[in-house]
Structure formats: C-alpha cells, structure tokens
C-alpha cells in the first residue's frame, strides 16, 4: 500500500497561488488560498505492475479446471462457481485459496466473499497491483 501511495504522490502536483493582500479578514488567510491538483498519468512502472487480463483469464481457468471437485468441461469465463460448476461454499473458498497461491498474493476475506464467478476473479486479480 505504501508503494502505491508513493507512486501516486510522486505524480501529484499541487499549485498554490498567492493572492493579493486584502484588508477584509474574511477573504484573507487559509480560506482564500486555492489549490489546483493536477494528476499526471501514471508512470510506466505503475502501469506495468498490473497483469494482462487475457493472461489472468487463462490462468484462472486453468486453476479452476485443475480443481478436483469441478467438471473441467463446464469451466468457461462466465461460469458461476456454485450454479454452473456445482461447487459449494467450502469449495469456492478452496478455489480462492488456489488463486492466491497461483498469483502470489492474499485476497482479503471481504473481497474473497464477493468472488463467485470466474469473471469476478479475473476482474479482481487483473486490477490488483500485487498479482504476479
């Protein structure tokens, strides 16, 4: 998290303009300052830290196909773990754990609970900077 914050702050520029002195105390001081924050595009370093979505899709499908309790012939990008693949909630937790191992980062429980389809897993992993 600190690395992402550092990368963002590295590319954030704040312009402060001094205002002319005004004898009216309401228009003076910190209330009269205006800030214009301009975010430049992320550097290649930050852009390059996210995985390609098609690569993530292929790897997620591979992990799910190799899961012992699922039917590999039913695995598709839009497959729902419970409705289409017949996995129960414990199986889904095991799939998420296998995805954590495959991509080298821990998925927080509150996010893992939301992953119920292959597409949701792909979206979450592809948007996560720690995925490898």
Automatic annotation (TrEMBL):
Question: So, what pathway does this thing act in?
Answer: Lipid metabolism; fatty acid biosynthesis
- GO CC terms: mitochondrion
**Carrier domain ranges (all copies):** 54-129
Q: Which Gene3D superfamilies match?
A: ACP-like
Top-level taxon of the source organism = Eukaryota
Q: Which UniProt keywords apply?
A: Electron transport, Fatty acid biosynthesis, Fatty acid metabolism, Lipid biosynthesis, Lipid metabolism, Phosphopantetheine, Phosphoprotein, Respiratory chain, Transport
A single GO molecular function, which one?
A: acyl carrier activity
InterPro entries this protein is in? ACP, ACP-like_sf, PP-bd_ACP, Ppantetheine_attach_site
The record's function comment reads: Carrier of the growing fatty acid chain in fatty acid biosynthesis. May be involved in the synthesis of short and medium chain fatty acids. Accessory and non-catalytic subunit of the mitochondrial membrane respiratory chain NADH dehydrogenase (Complex I), which functions in the transfer of electrons from NADH to the respiratory chain.
- Quote the subunit structure annotation: Complex I is composed of at least 49 different subunits.
| Protein family membership | Belongs to the acyl carrier protein (ACP) family.
Protein name in the entry:
Acyl carrier protein
**Which organism does this sequence originate in?**
Durio zibethinus
The gene designation is LOC111277694
């Amino acid at each position: 998290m600190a690395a992402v914050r550092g990368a963002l702050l590295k590319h954030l520029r704040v312009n402060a303009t001094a205002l002319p002195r005004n004898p009216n105390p309401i228009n003076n001081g910190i209330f009269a300052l205006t800030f214009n924050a301009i975010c430049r595009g992320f550097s290649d370093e930050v852009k390059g830290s996210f995985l390609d979505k098609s690569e993530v899709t292929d790897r997620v499908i591979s992990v799910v196909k190799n899961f012992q309790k699922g039917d590999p012939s039913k695995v598709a990008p839009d497959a729902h773990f419970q409705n289409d693949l017949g996995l129960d909630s414990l199986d889904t937790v095991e799939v998420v754990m296998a995805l954590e191992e495959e991509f080298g980062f821990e998925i927080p429980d509150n996010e893992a609970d939301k992953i119920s389809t292959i597409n949701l897993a792909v979206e979450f992993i592809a948007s996560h900077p720690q995925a490898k």
